[in-house]
Amino acid sequence: MTVKELCEKMELSVLTLPDGDREIRGAYCCDLLSWVMGRAKADDVWITIMSNSNIVAVASLADTACILLAEGVELDDNVKAVAEAKGINVLTSEKTAYELASQLSSFLK
Amino acid sequence: MKELSLNILDIAENSVRAGAKLTSIAINEDDEVIKVTISDDGCGMTEEVLRNVTDPFCTTRTTRKVGLGIPLLKLAAEQTGGEVTIVSRHESEYPDTHGTTTSATFFKNHIDMTPLGDINATVVTLIQCNPHIDFLFTHQFGGKTVSLDTRELREVLGDVPLNTLEVIMWIKENLNEQYNGE
User: Fold this and answer.
1) Domains in chain B: how many in total?
2) Which of A52, A64, B117, B161 is disulfide-compatible with A46, CB 3.0–4.6 A?
3) B56 contact A CB<8A
4) Residue B54 is part of a domain; what is its CATH number?
């Protein structure tokens, strides 16, 4: 499943989608950035509520497929611009991290 | 980072990479605020590097394109209502007084305060991994001061390297005693 397909299936709002054809292979859920750096895997959907520009760097470093912001978290314009420039997909949803993760698990068989 | 001491280790490693001969780590605590100051006599940063230093996509590393030492320290401080300030003098402009001072303030009663963690381990790791350079560590809290100065140890030890197992064990015990003693 690609990030673009995920957006449609889960009705997520797109904040940035520079690489919509990126394949998704797993998911990871955590807000402590240093923890995510060492533990999220490449091609994961990373679910978080953090929204400062460091998340773009962490997603880039861990090579996740996209960042999925929970609980309606939005990005500042400058963070959005960095994400766009670095090719990082960022999506958002009103649902909680738990709801998103449990919904996502049915697509990641 | 789950512990501030790991942030401190990360910043002190920047000092080591900047060629510092002496790196000071000072922690000053009162009832409300913890102030952490890491200062070195390394090569310093140019104004341009200093301007971009909180940008995670700016790093002196060549092995990867992302550097999160300062950005994560800034995040940890700001999420308690504190801040990070950095003053640096590059060797090109200040041949005799170059170096960098990074200060972070944390409001320790804030719910998002990261615990200080095992600061002894940070100090010991720094000395163990960089036996050729000097570290001055001071931690003031509750009317008490814990301190360690590798320059003083060197005077006593003569040619014995600081990362000799017995020396490292002594440093560990000495710090523990200072923290736990009267």
Assistant:
1) 1
2) A64
3) yes
4) 3.30.565.10
What pTM was computed for the model?
Answer: 0.84
The phi and psi torsions of A89 (rounded to 5 degrees) equal: -75, 130
Helix (H) or strand (E) holding B155, with range, is helix B150-157
In eight-state DSSP terms, residue B41 is: -
Q: What are phi and psi of B89, to 5 degrees?
A: -120, 120
Q: Identify the closest residue of chain B to A86 by CA–CA distance.
A: B57
Separation between Cα atoms, residue B60 and residue A68, nearest integer Å: 29
- Length of chain B (residues): 182
CATH of residue A80: 3.40.1390.20
Note the residue count of chain A. 109
Per-residue pLDDT of chain A (109 residues; tens, 9 = 90+): 999 999 999 999 999 999 999 999 999 999 999 899 999 999 999 999 999 989 999 999 999 999 999 999 999 999 999 999 999 999 999 999 999 999 999 998 7
Query: Greatest CA span in chain A, whole angstroms?
Result: 36
Report CB contact under 8 Å: B57, A54: no
What's the DSSP call for residue A26?
E
Domain extent, residue B86, equals 4-180
Does the structure show a pLDDT above 80 at B61? no
A·B CB contacts under 8 A: 39
